[in-house]
Amino acid sequence: MIRIAVLPGDGIGPEVCSQAVKVLRHVCKGFSFTEAAVGGAALDSCGLPLPSETLKLCKESDSILLGAVGGPKWNAAPPHLRPEQAILQLRKELNIYANLRPIVSYPMSKDSSPLKPGIVEKGIDILIVRELNGGIYFGPKSRERTSTGYLASDTEIYSTDEIERIAHAAFGIAKKRTRKVTSVDKANVLESSRLWRETVEKISLQYPEIDLEHMYIDNCAMQLILNPSRFDVILTNNMFGDILSDEASVITGSIGMMPSASIGGQSFGLYEPIHGSAPDIAGQNKANPIAAILSAAMMLRLSFNMYREANAIENAVEKALNMGYRTSDIMSSGCKEVGTSEMGELIIAGISC
Ligand code: IPM
Ligand code: MG
Question: What CA–CA distance (Å, rounded) separates 252 from 258?
């Protein structure tokens, strides 16, 4: 049995996770699923965003499927007890340092995306490779009183080793794609970015077949919207990757379409939609389950080498969209609006493998 830890979390997390589990059960009988609390739900039940039993379960599992964490209910929690801490701790404890976020345009994207159809219709297939274990997320933080208020700091910090391993991950992946890597930094201002750029440049010598370019983050944020089809693999740090991936989601039409994988050199991985907990629509059968279902497909491919099943799921998603089925976030005129569980059923009905 392949053991999957399921961490549904908060808001729409449980609804979208249950659709992804339904799809996984459909394509493979060899999985066992064990649920555990995480995020705000865990704070409510055990007083901690990542209880030790949840971490233990994750460590004993072959992969993790996560829904979403956070919500206004826990906004006043002290920093170390915020629901988001659960994800950060998991990433660190499990040493999953490479976050892969594909941005792919679908035929429906031209109607759902706020970008001009001409930009989206060119066909977009970008993979953001985001460093996940370092940078400003994990550098020293401080807050001290001053005579007029407070002084607070967060530190952007990277070691050569951390940059090298994420660069290897990006170049390795690029070899199987169109062989182009855009490394994004702020080397005109930040010392950590200068080390980033030098290190990426050095590692690139081991991958002569890859075409490497460097781009400043501010310019990249603009190019991503002006001309997204120019990008293939985008390699960047923790913070820039967080921001660019939300920006990139508008290209596809909705953040509800975007899956992600967090891996760390072995087959083990954490798979989650990049959207948040969307508390405003939670529990109403309105959430788009596609990001969670596509995250499950990434799990099959990256953790278990189940390419046939992963492709079948991705094809079934396209089939449901081509038949005109839409959740409310991607609804456009002439299409049929369906709820979370109906979309899950439609995708299952379209799976052939
Ligand atoms: C993401 C999220 C997380 C992050 C939060 C929830 C900690 O925004 O995965 O993109 O900032 O990495
Ligand atoms: Mg984010």
Answer: 8
